């Protein structure tokens, strides 16, 4: 069933757990995420990045919303990392229930201005705005930010930012990075604790791929209620396709069992579903 993002995240926060938010690029990847959520009977957030929306347009967004509506667990649909108010409004009109109005690359004053406009826009759609203060190193959907340019969230600034913007959720930078890292980056948990003491809204942790169960669950214990995962799931899906290609060879024979499109998609969906399941068990604090 299609759910309100803020309600899902707020309920997770109340229970001392988090909601997993996973980026999707196609109906097949959406299927993998929803199958994992339904198997565990857990709520989930489907996220669409700007590049995905530009590529798939309204059909992709609406298909994602319909998939959420027909799911047997609560599912929210979220537009991730978008600085374009026009795209945010368009996605709201297509059924998304939340968006990250990403002004993290702007000055503090410009970030406040963008976020306030997004919050005002969202109110007319009964939607939710996630904001980001501080920005992450790493690569997300082909956009790379060098580590030297990354900026950590300042706790006192976070309080002023939330008060000035009215944002309902806040993504923080505490040493986390976009993309997969073989060795988990050191997270500044003291900074996270200070931020949580300054604001009374759910905190969001981006870049959870490769962080490890212990780090993620410690962040949840300090106030994080939405965990974003993209790279690990996408890589599992693509790796399954690559493995299938190596096994089948350059010229598939669609008359043979295991060599047609649906065979390929079944393998890719299963691989992605396994990774999503592991992350959902972590954020739901399952043993």
From TrEMBL:
InterPro entries: Aldolase_TIM, Class_II_FBP_aldolase, FBA_II. Pfam families: F_bP_aldolase (PF01116). This is Tagatose-bisphosphate aldolase. It comes from the Bacteria. Coiled coil: none annotated. Its cofactor is Zn(2+). PANTHER family: D-TAGATOSE-1,6-BISPHOSPHATE ALDOLASE, D-TAGATOSE-1,6-BISPHOSPHATE ALDOLASE SUBUNIT GATY-RELATED.
């Amino acid at each position: 069933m299609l759910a309100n993002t803020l309600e899902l995240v707020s309920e997770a926060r109340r229970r001392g757990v988090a909601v997993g938010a996973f980026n999707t690029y196609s109906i097949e990847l959406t299927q993998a995420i929803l199958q994992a959520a339904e198997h565990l009977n857990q709520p989930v957030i489907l996220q669409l990045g700007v590049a995905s929306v530009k590529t798939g347009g309204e059909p992709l967004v609406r298909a994602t919303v319909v998939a959420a509506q027909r799911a047997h667990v609560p599912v929210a649909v979220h537009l991730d990392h978008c600085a374009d108010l026009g795209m945010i409004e368009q996605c709201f009109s297509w059924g998304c229930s939340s968006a990250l109005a990403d002004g993290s690359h702007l000055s503090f004053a410009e970030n406040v201005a963008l976020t306030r406009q997004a919050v005002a826009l969202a109110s007319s759609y009964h939607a939710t705005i996630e904001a980001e203060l501080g920005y992450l190193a790493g690569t997300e959907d082909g956009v790379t930010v060098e580590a030297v340019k990354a900026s950590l969230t300042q706790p006192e600034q976070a309080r002023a930012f939330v008060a000035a913007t009215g944002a309902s959720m806040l993504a923080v930078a505490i040493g986390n990075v976009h993309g997969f890292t073989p060795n988990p980056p050191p997270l500044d948990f003291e900074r996270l604790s200070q931020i949580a003491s300054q604001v009374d809204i759910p905190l969001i942790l981006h870049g959870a791929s490769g962080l490890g169960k212990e780090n993620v669950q410690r962040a949840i214990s300090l106030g994080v209620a939405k965990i974003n995962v993209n790279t690990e799931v996408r890589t599992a899906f693509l790796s399954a396709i690559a493995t299938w290609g190596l096994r089948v060879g350059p010229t598939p024979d669609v008359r043979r069992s295991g060599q047609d499109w649906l065979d390929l998609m079944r393998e890719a969906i299963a691989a992605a579903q396994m990774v999503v399941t592991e992350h959902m068990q972590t954020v739901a604090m399952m043993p």
